[in-house]
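My current task is to audit a protein record that another person submitted. What it holds is a sequence and that sequence's fold in token form. Thanks in advance; the entry in question is below.
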Amino acid sequence: MPAPIRLRELIRTIRTARTQAEEREMIQKECAAIRSSFREEDNTYRCRNVAKLLYMHMLGYPAHFGQLECLKLIASQKFTDKRIGYLGAMLLLDERQDVHLLMTNCIKNDLNHSTQYVQGLALCTLGCMGSSEMCRDLAGEVEKLLKTSNSYLRKKAALCAVHVIRKVPELMEMFLPATKNLLSEKNHGVLHTSVVLLTEMCERSPDMLLHFRKVWLLVPQLVRILKNLIMSGYSPEHDVSGISDPFLQVRILRLLRILGRSDDDSSEAMNDILAQVATNTETSKNVGNAILYETVLTIMDIKSESGLRVLAINILGRFLLNNDKNIRYVALTSLLKTVQTDHNAVQRHRSTIVDCLKDLDVSIKRRAMELSFALVNGNNIRGMMKELLYFLDSCDPEFKADCASGVFLAAEKYAPSKRWHIDTIMRVLTTAGSYVRDDSVPNLIQLITNSVEMHAYTVQRLYKALLDDISQQPLVQVSSWCIGEYGDLLVSGQCEEEEPIQVTEDEVLDVLEGLLVSNLSTPVTRGYSLTAIMKLSTRFSSVNRIKKVVSIYGSSIDVELQQRAVEYNALFKKYDHMRPALLERMPIMEKTASNGPTEIMQTNGETEPSVPDTKHLPLVTQPANQANDLLDLLGGNDVMPVIQTTLPTKPASAGGELLDLLGDLSLSGGLAPAPSVPVSQPPFLLDGLSSQPLFNDTSAAIPPMTAYSKNGLKIEFTFERANPNPNIAVITIHATNTTEADMTEFVFQAAVPKTFQLQLLSPSSNIVPALNQGSVTQVIRVLNPQKQQLRMRVKLTYTHKGSPVQDLAEVNNFPPQSWQ
């Protein structure tokens, strides 16, 4: 068989390939020749073939068939064979493959070899890919080599010990005696690897960390080594850009950081050397900057003196002036981590940080923006907001959302006056309205509502902004809401903060009608506009024009807009006497802290988050979108709303469900959808039951009844009488399913006449098991102070065999004991 080509020739041949297909063909041809050579047990060229195989592996081609050949090379007595064999083992083998265990004996023999270079190969291989089993078997040999006088072997043994500790942490104490003498070595390679080994031990074991601090007194030893490095003269062997062994300095600084963390004595011992490193290190080269950065991290992480921390922050401030973008980014990131603990020191570099907002690099701009917001306080709010709003005007779209949110939060926290607060948020809406968060609109509405003295000024500013640009939807929504609430102030020209503008009622209505037909308006914006026009029917004299606009949208293709228009038309016709009271101005909305989730309070059709004031609450509270829909559909103030303890499952469709469920206006005060997510409950008249037994012993006298039985679904009512209030009937529903398939997404809803009050508690489940294998239970509380006959209309929705089912039923045959 002819001699195979050399590795150099193979590389040259592969590089001449013009296409990937041609390269693959060459590789496949050579792999076939290598396989043939392996089958013939050709010892002469095995080393050459494995070397070529490793090159192919580096190019991404499969080379697993050479694993056993690597083991044969390791077992060879020739150093050149061992070198390629160990290299192949490190590249082609790992601990997930059982083949690597066959190497254990060879490595053990080579660790005891008479030649240091063979021992070095074995240490490198064990430290690279040794499994936990191999590490346990060979840890003794590694520990022996740590004690040898040969510096070449000691540094390799130290790195191998790091790998052993990572694989088998319980072997850590084995290396402790041998490690103690490593720091007294003058060889920098041994020093470097010993610091790496000590760092690994400290990170892995708190007990070992305490031992190094208190018993070994490791900090003074490290301080001495670091001081020698700084004070030593020029050494060509270790010098890098005029700095003596920066790699060892960085490693020592990292170990000092671990030793000084949360320890006063260790921190005190290293304060002086850290100050010396920070002041004596040359910053003209990147090597010096790397050491300074590690020094800063160490100072910030230990219990250092305040002056030393200021020095560290000043170093980061100098980094911000560096031309290297990576150094500026590192400085901004580090300052962002320290701004909470050393706020005043970071404030000194505020102008430099703000200048980074103009950087072309997007990563630096983002870090500078985050740090700028962290620096905002009550003293610099005006200046910082000016810079950040300028940044918001010119920044890329990817920054606008985060920047707008940051401006909102900072303005809310540190606003010097309400007018400044409103002007700032309006500036954001004008500049980046399409990028603001969803809650910005209700938050601004609440701010405007609570700023009574600013109503005329605000509505005038928003009206002007609306004339200039209607593309920013949040701005348009806030403007529409304000014009609807305070349109009379706009027309009357009562603004005192700036020169009032002359606006007629028709001009205002023209603007709002333009929003309804604009292609830029979203469905939500159109809803705001229609509601604003409706509100103006009690503030303007152009009632006939408003009636005409509202009636047009009664047949809108947008269901939400259509429903609003239909309800508003009903207010004009049947309930016109109630219209002024329903559309009067919103009261001041109090925003107080709450442990529970924020309630959603109604604002004439628009929702905004607020927390209800429990001192002024009526006996009941209503879910979002339903209370107002009830007013619209049933006639308002004489309706008895439903007591609701939890948020509704489907609030968006509540209006339509009311229409379906109630049918006529003689029925109930409300709809009680099945609740799903518990929230903090407001006080209501049934709360007094919690401290006493819920039911009395006479409840057994009330017979149960079947309220519904259809399509395999059966609803049974059982009754209890609440204690101590005999006017409250507690009804427990039991829903069972006789079909062969589960009924999922089961929701039970109920409505009662307006002389009753009804409360639905959470159901036990939303799945009714098949074949009567279980039931869903739910408790209804009904207050019947007038002892009238109980009537109830129920609505059932569920999914059965993949198809949605919906049904209505009326229950009038309640046993007399349940309501008498």
Remarks:
- The chain has 34 helices and 15 strands.
